[in-house]
Amino acid sequence: LGAPEVPGRGSTALNLFQWTWSSVAAECTSTIGPAGFAYVQVSPPQEHIQGTAWWTSYQPVSYRLESKLGTRAEFKNMVDTCRAAGVGIIADAVINHMTGADAGSGTGTGGSTFGVDNFPGIYDASSFNDCRSNISNYGDRYQVQNCRLVSLQDLRTGSNAVRDRIAAYLNDLLSLGVAGFRMDASKHIPAADLEAIKSRLSNPNVFWVHEVIGSAGEPIQPSEYLGSGDSHEFQYARNLKSYMDGSIAGIRGITNGLLPSDRAGVFVDNHDTERDGHGTMNYQWGQKYILGNVFMLAYPYGWPTVYSGYKFTDRDAGVPGSTATRVPDASCSNTAVWTCMHRKPEIQGMVKFRNAVSGTSVTSWWDDGNNHIAFGRGDKGYVVINNGANAVTRTYQTSLPAGEYTDLVSATGTRYTVDSSGRFTATVPQYGALALAVVASTPGGGEPGDPG
Ligand code: ARE
Ligand code: CA
Hints:
Blueprint: E1 13-16, H1 21-35, E2 39-42, H2 72-84, E3 88-93, E4 97-100, E5 106-107, E6 113-114, H3 141-146, E7 152-154, H4 160-175, E8 180-183, H5 191-199, E9 207-210, E10 230-232, H6 234-245, E11 264-267, H7 287-298, E12 303-308, H8 345-357, E13 362-367, E14 372-377, E15 381-386, E16 392-397, E17 403-406, E18 415-418, E19 423-428, E20 432-437
Parallel strand pairs: 1-2, 1-12, 2-3, 3-8, 8-9, 9-10, 10-11, 11-12
Antiparallel strand pairs: 4-7, 5-6, 13-14, 14-15, 15-20, 16-19, 17-18
Bound molecules: acarbose derived pentasaccharide (ARE) and calcium ion.
């Protein structure tokens, strides 16, 4: 599913939004590797405009790896440190555009100068598409792919020179050992251009997941991009929110009409959706948000990414304490700032669950017609989700072998005995969950991003 499975570790990813390279490296060793994640997606690593807003990351100035999140040496150290912990790095590749024309000219985070149509040594006026207005109508394919997304200068990805330059950037990241790419704003690049760029890579089979926001009524949809990678399936996150907000009894319908499971990247939210509008849940939903993650990790659809960012009150504001050229290191002891969702026992337990039940399908589904559901994953696992405001007690029928199991969700490691008919009795708290699995003792080795 999605990114290649790492033997014994599955393929679950963690999106560490706006974490510096040094803080990602430390977290890989202390937490992410031991927790059983296979990949970390990091924010864009290329040089970008200066400024304290988080979105400066999405305005490339050059392809030097000198950003607010760290230097080239720090990036390389992160890739190596994470690999040693069994975790592959997925880089966020911003290749549709350079800086906003509305930002004028200036100096980037690595000291390179830039201006409109002017990126010395990299791009000039001939490198940009002829349309110089902003996209106003997502119903118009030409506009969406050739005009400016929120003023961002749109690269002429149909030209060989631009394709070569972008491929050189991605090849540089591959040479440092990254395991894959999240392709930013793919909807704004013709699918054929992306295929042409990918064919130029030192590893043309490297994992790509496209950001193509599927929206009803638009001419460009995620399915168009599957020739060069998987795609994030935004409708999954929107559907998940609707179920969690109402009743989850019918949540198996979440995948109706979506991309095939083995081509879909799924998440509860990402850095855009957590801020923009009401399409998905976000950390402010508290326990329900965690339960949404529990469902995503328990249910066999798509390639899941757990999202972990920082607490915000303002849509644009970067990490508190940011300067124009540097973001402070993330720290999970600083709970006023960082959500550290990936450190929640429920989420770490469910990553272990997903790794343990890999390859099984849903068995013994049960629901109460409202907000209490339970299902098995063959003879490997069983999960209960209580999305209701009261505790529930029940005797559950599993397909698990008889024995003693530790609940992977509870922080205290409550134990349950499954009897010879596969039954156990439990009480699950309000907005709580329980997960039993036949867990292998230690995650296996294997380096993500290794070919084959
Ligand atoms: C900032 C300022 C702008 C300014 C611009 C240039 O906010 O006012 O004009 O800079 O100076 C992020 C931020 C933007 C930011 C940009 C550049 O979100 O606010 O602009 O960085 O710094 C569409 C795209 C989709 C895109 C979303 C946000 O299709 O690709 O918009 N998502 C990615 C990233 C973003 C990032 C960019 C792309 C740009 O994840 O974080 O922007 O690199 C419907 C459509 C969708 C559309 C959506 C929102 O749902 O179907 O396609 O998504 O509406 O418009
Ligand atoms: Ca474009």
